Structures are given as structure tokens and as C-alpha cells.
């Protein structure tokens, strides 16, 4: 097979094979932009290596052939003694994983070619600095020497010379350093640093392959739901040097502001530096605009390249470039990560500019981004003590206790504490801590530093480059000129403004949340830009989508909010919530009833309360469907806890107190009702069939609420839903009772009710027999929570804490099946239920009311499956509307 592609053979549509970096390098080369020559080893080769432990046998020859072409064009050979060609060996997977895998620069240097490089470029110090970087990088990433060992050798030399900075070391120091590094490698590995350039190249390539399974790469993939079996490509590319003097440098650029979406030139530039120094935040960068003064010709060339890229990709691009002695080289581009606010803004701008269609604009935003825009902001009306200002790198408001390393962040957050990770700068090793933290705060680095890029990608709050802060990780504190903040102290981080406050600043609704709370009306003159951008996209989504969106709501307040957020009805009204609070004693009385009379009295007391609830909900959702589910949970949930009650009774007995009759009786009932696995016990339709009068009371409350609303001139659209049906026979029995009650109320009041009666499909048997259930059920609602539990045999409360993280680690699934629907298993049952239900009853109305109704990926599945609606929590309604629109594109 073909495992190596020259840049001129590839293109952006080949990212699966060439990785994102390789595909885009190829695309830029093809566009005629200045890209240092190179070629890409495919992800296919990596997959072979990961599967067998060996690279494909043809690989070495194919690499040599492509290298030879490169060498001929350059007129130099890899590692050639008098004037070496040097290459970088760069990782690059299908989906961008910034800084998570390895890249090795300056391959081809050895004890001889370092002299040749010095001579050819007339820069002795530079050559030795490059060599010591190679030995260090190769020693740690390829040969496995702990990078801290190199750091401490370096620190030792710096100390001898009273140097605070690498730049203060002279050529002699660097020569000594290379020797010491080589000695270290030999000592640690028993093997010398390889002098053969071909061997360096081969081993570096395999090290990049191996880094696909490095710990931080795995953590990142899990967090971003990237599959573990894709593998990485390897890009082998001629080196260009940004550290050859003041007319050289490296930088990162965005074609629009990735924080706000504003068009313009954004980025960071570091004169006289290699590109890795920019991202590492080791030295402070200057804003890219400065380049206009430093090197106007290169700046103009860069602007031109950026304009070409944006027009070509029709999207925000981010770019890595290097200037070598006033010549611009493009080293990377990709469609850039951006904040949610920027995503909405850019989608709108590009539509206005005619670069993309409104449908494409809709495709470029997503539900998770919208959800983030709905998060609260800090209240700016009170007095707040500003600790520090930094760069607003990733927006949002976060409050948490300060921690200074990744492990502490992970430890505290596992205990439920909210933390803010404070570092001088982050490295990929901080990833677990960044995931655990609410916010990341650094004292160094710009908008393109590791912290900023990773936080933005994860939607995590980040302020970086807060230069007033002195971070002391050993002392576990940071200080400003006036205050010292210690580990555990609470701070507030505003990633939208780039501010850090002492203490917990109160939160207020975001403008986008206010917009939805106000009913999603067209924004007026004074509305902020982000609200306009969101409004516009929501309009497009509503126009595009086929599915309706309902909400799960149990109270009139929730129903009203859901409606303001755009819900087209209630897909799940859980009546058990009406049994809680001060009504518990009535429910208790119903359960403890000795005879029909007592039970009826208890039910009669509940009736007016439920009726009033239903009236409120039907009023809030006037004219829209409200699906009311009959009582579902097992009765013990309404009784006191068994252990607690036993202890109380035992204590009374021990104290020789007169046994409280009620308590003894209660204990007997609780013991009787206690279920080892309540998920599979006496609940759902089974309750209705076993507890006399329960269904009748609930249906009567619904029916009388409908009557009351109709008499008040309303348009109530109640639907009655039976939970946890396994067999059509169960449904038939309950349905007969429902029908009797509806008829009785209708006859008694003279009001026609028209309440459809349907069922939940939430057990595998129901899905498999949906064809016969549909003979009697007038609608289906897929209860995908219980369907997931029962299909997998997972008791949700038991499995999540016990072993889900192990399952995610082992790649059994990428996401919890409770979060995103499992298409192959649970999804298959959904498909069967839909197909067979509609075969019996054409046009059968089918929705979903599990948590999955608000999950973006699941919404796309439900669209594809042909559901009529999804129902989710009120706050997720806008997300579901947006995703249902995107699914229909
Ligand atoms: P990452 O995926 O972590 O961004 P890269 O492969 O982009 O890793 O490499 C990191 C940096 O190394 C680049 O931003 C660039 O500045 C520098 N680099 C990579 N290849 C070259 C090259 N051929 N010439 C000069 N610098 C390079
Ligand atoms: Mg890069
Ligand atoms: Mg259920």
C-alpha cells in the first residue's frame, strides 16, 4: 500500500488519511502558499504499527524515496556534514489535539552536522542551541529519559553562570550542555544518542506513532469523545528557522478574533524564536500587529496569505508561521477553534459576506456552544476586588478554590469541590487538572498559549498572561503587589473580561439567557451583538427543523419557562413530583390504608391538589399538548427510609418507651414495600394495576382539570401516558380504567374531553412488541433512560460511580450511554419500536422523553429515526431546537 504522500499529492479532504495537519499543509502547498517542503506518513501506517508493534514493511523504503526527492530539490541531504538538511517530525491526527502528541524538531543534527549548520548559516550559537534542543527532545520523547533530568542539568549550568534565561548561555555553555545531555542519555538508557540521521528519523516517526497512546492524548480523546483507533499521521518537513536573529521570528495568527469573532488580524509574535517557544509561553510575545513595524514586507505577505486562506476555507483559520531572515513560511493552518460567542458571530458575518449560505451558517454553531452562552455571568453592580487582569482567553464565569497543580485539582474536584487551577503556564501534563477545574488562570502566555487553546477547546473558563501575579507553586500561593492568595482561598475568574476577583462574586443571568427568558422576541436596538447573532440562528434552526421540541416539566412555572424557551408542549409531566413535600402524609395515609374507605379518603384528599396542579400546567401550555404520565416510582420512595425508621423504633424500644402505633405500622409497611432493585420492582403500570383507585384518582384529576380549563375558555390538550408497559395486556387493562373515568367525568360535566391515551416504550419487551401495543396505544413516548438501563442491564445509580470511568478508559464506550444514546443497542430497539408501531398505526405520534432528548448527538439520531418530537428539560429546549434544525440540514 501507499503509506507516504508528498504535500503536493494531498488535500484538505484527506484528513482521515493524512491527519488534519498534513491535509492542510498539503492544501496550502497546493494553493501556492509558502510551505517548507515535506511529506506525510499516513494514519494507516500508524494503525498498522499500533496493531502489530511494527510499521508496515514498505514504510521505510517509501520514506527514503520521498526524502530523496526533498533532498534533490533542496540540494542538501539529511544531516549532510557540510550543510545539513534538517527536518521536523510532526504528529497530526484526524481531529486536532493541540500539544497532546509529540513533535520533534531539528532531526538530522549530530556531532558533525552541527558544525556544518553553524558554518552554512554563519551562526555558531544558533547551531548548538538547535542541537541541544534536539538531544533533549529526542532523549525524552524517543529514548524515554525523564525530561526533568534535562531540566535540572540545564538549571545547573544556568546557576553556574548566574543566568536566568537560556539566551544568556553562550556557545561554549551550549557545547558543554550537549555533551552533558548525551552523557545523561547514555547513563540512563545504556545507549548513545544516535548519530545516524536516518535512524533519528525512523525512531522519531515511531515515537510520534507511540505518542497516540500517551497518557495525555488518551485523556484528551476521552474528554473530546475522539475514537481511540484513528491513529496519527506523521509529517516530515524541512526545517525553517525563526531564531536566526532579529529579522526572524515565529508567530500564531487568527483571521478573526477567536474570542469575539471580530474580523481583523489577531495573534502573537515572538521575534528571534522557534515556534514552540510561542505556544509554550516561555517568553512574552508581542501582539501580531507589531510585526507591521518590525518587518512590513513579511507582514503584508502574511496578511495576504491569511486573506487567501479565509476565502478558501470560508471560515476562521488559525495559522502557525515562521519568518526566517525576512522570508515568510507557513507551518500550519486549520479551521480555528473559537468561543461559542465567536462561533455565532462568525457564522452570521460569513453569511452576510456571502461566503456561506444560511444553512452552512447554521451547521457551524452547535447546541453545546449555545448552552455555554446561557451560563450565568458575574454581577458587575456590586463592589468587587480586582486581584489581577489578564487576557480573556476563554469566556465564562467561574468561582473556585485556588490550587497550584493538576493532582490537587483532580483530588479536590473528586471530593466535589470547585477549583481554579493557577499556573505560571500550563503544559500538556496539566490536562487532568484543567479538566477537573472550573477555570484556568496563568501568569504567562497569550491567547495562543497552551492554556488558552486547550481551555477554549473544552469550553473552560480561562484567563492567561495575568502578569501582575507571581505564582509560587512550591509555596502553594500566588501574590499580587498587595495580596497573597493561598491554596484553598476562593477566587472568581471572568474569562470574558480577563479579570480575577478575590472571593466569590455573585452571578447574574447572561444576556442570552435573558433573551430566552423574555420569550425569544426579536432583539431591539439596544440588544448586545451576541443576542442578535443567537436570535438569527434560532430563526434558521426553527425554519429548518422537522421535529418538534417539547419540555419535561412538572410545575406551572417550569411549563411557562419552557414555553418562553420555545417548547411546543410538554412531553413528560411527572406526577410523582405532585406527591412530595407536604403531601407526603396524604400519600402515607393512602399506602397505610386498612380498607377501601380509608384509601378512598386519602385519594380524595389528593385529588383536588393534583387537579389544581394540572389546571396550572394546562393553562401555562394552553393550546399545546401536555403529556401527563401516571404515577411511576415504587411507593417506598414516598415512605421514610427503612434504616432510619428501624433505628428510631429500636431506640424507642430500648428506652422502654410505649411503642408508637403509627411508627410500628409504618415500619411494617416500609419493610413490605422495600425493594432491593426498585428499578425493576413494583412501579409504573404495575402500580396502577395493584393499588386500587390510584389510576382513577389521577385520571379524574386530569379530566376535571381539562373541564375547568375548557370552562374558563382555554384550550387544554392533555394526553395521558402509561409508564413501564411490558405487554399490551397491561396497557389494555389500565386503558379501560382510564376510559371509564374519562367517560364518567365527561358525562357528569357534559364536556367532551378528547384525551389521547398512550404509552411509554421504555422496556425492551415493549419495543419488541410495539406492533401489538400500537393497536391500543394512541401515541408512543420513548423513555430512553429506562430503556438504556434495561437494555444494558445497568442500574444507573449503581454503575456510574462503580465502573463507568473504567469502561470509558477501556474504550467500551466513548460516552456514557446515559448521556448519548447507544445507537447500535438501545437505538436499534428505538428503530424497531418506530417501524413496528407505525406499521400497525400509520402516522403514530412518537417522541422521546429521556435525558437524551436534550443531547445534541442523540437529537440527530432521533431526527434520522423519524421521531415527531424530542422532549427535554426546559433549559435544554433552545439546544434541542438548534440541534433539531442542524439535524435537518
Ligand atoms: P502541535 O501539533 O503540538 O502544534 P506542531 O507539529 O505544530 O505541534 O509543532 C510545534 C511547533 O514546532 C510548530 O508550531 C512550529 O513552530 C515548530 N515547527 C514544526 N515544524 C517546523 C519546521 N519544519 N520548521 C520550523 N518550525 C517547525
Ligand atoms: Mg502546531
Ligand atoms: Mg422510566
Automatic annotation (TrEMBL):
Domain PEP-utilising enzyme C-terminal: 533-885
InterPro entries listed in its UniProt record: ATP_grasp_subdomain_1, PEP-util_enz_mobile_dom, PEP_util_AS, PEP_util_C, Phosphohistidine_dom_sf, PPDK_AMP/ATP-bd, Pyruvate_phosphate_dikinase, Pyrv/PenolPyrv_kinase-like_dom
The keyword Nucleotide-binding belongs to this UniProt entry's keyword annotation: yes
Gene Ontology molecular function, alphabetical: ATP binding; kinase activity; metal ion binding; pyruvate, phosphate dikinase activity
PROSITE patterns named among the record's database cross-references: PEP_ENZYMES_PHOS_SITE (PS00370)
Domain Pyruvate phosphate dikinase AMP/ATP-binding: 17-52, 55-283, 291-343
Cited Gene3D superfamilies: 1.20.80.30, ATP-grasp fold, A domain, ATP-grasp fold, B domain, Phosphoenolpyruvate-binding domains, Phosphohistidine domain, Pyruvate Phosphate Dikinase, domain 2
UniProt entry keywords in alphabetical sequence: ATP-binding, Kinase, Magnesium, Metal-binding, Nucleotide-binding, Pyruvate, Transferase
Ligand binding (substrate): 574, 629, 762, 783-786
Listed name of the protein: Pyruvate, phosphate dikinase
Source organism: Streptomyces finlayi
